[in-house]
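Sorry, can you check?
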Amino acid sequence: MKVVLLAGGLGTRLAEETGVRPKPMVEIGEQPILWHIMKAYAAHGFEDFVVALGYKGEFIKQYFLNFYASYRDLSIDLASGAIQYETSPTINWRIQMTDTGAATMTGGRLHRLESLLRPGGTFMLTYGDGVCDIDIRKLLEFHRKHGRLATVTAVRPPARFGTMHFEGDQVLEFKEKLQTGEGWINGGFFVFEPEIFDYLNGDETVLEGKPLETLAAEGQLMAYKHEGFWQCMDTLRDKLRLQEMWASGAAPWKVW
């Protein structure tokens, strides 16, 4: 089953990083966040990826073009140019990278992939800037069981600010909240049937706008409620928080 990764946005709220590279290439630890997302899917057995490129897509292409050589021991004969790889590959991903336009909207990027995805039936999709400890196989099982056209993963939004409790002007308790206890938001990690393409129309289509709104109105959109960890990387603060989690050795999204 194919997994679509939307990796073409401008990432303007993370301009400190995205002025020189696309947001999916911003590193957490020594690897881009896109790698972390793909590792999570692969841990559940899904290794056939379609990356929808856009803004600075050449950085993503170069990363994967060099991936084979960068993470294996090798010998080079400079006289002949022959290369011998000394170790076997440990990653068996298949990655198709498609330019979907620098200014194309989310639904438009998916629309451009119709000829590739529609014949294959059910497929998954997520954004290239959010990590999660979701069980992908349970998500897919939920989707197949309800039989509708689309499933979105609903998550609890991370809280942006800590909370304080007072007695007069004295702070009795200060707590840095990591996640709110109320409300649900779109966390990505979608599952779609190919009929989703009937709801898309051109580059200006915003997936989260009319397509999903119409599916919901028609009773064709179901939510898989994920109570576990989820974090997007919208801002520098988000990036630093993810970096701290990874450096601690206990990153919640590391399911591999």
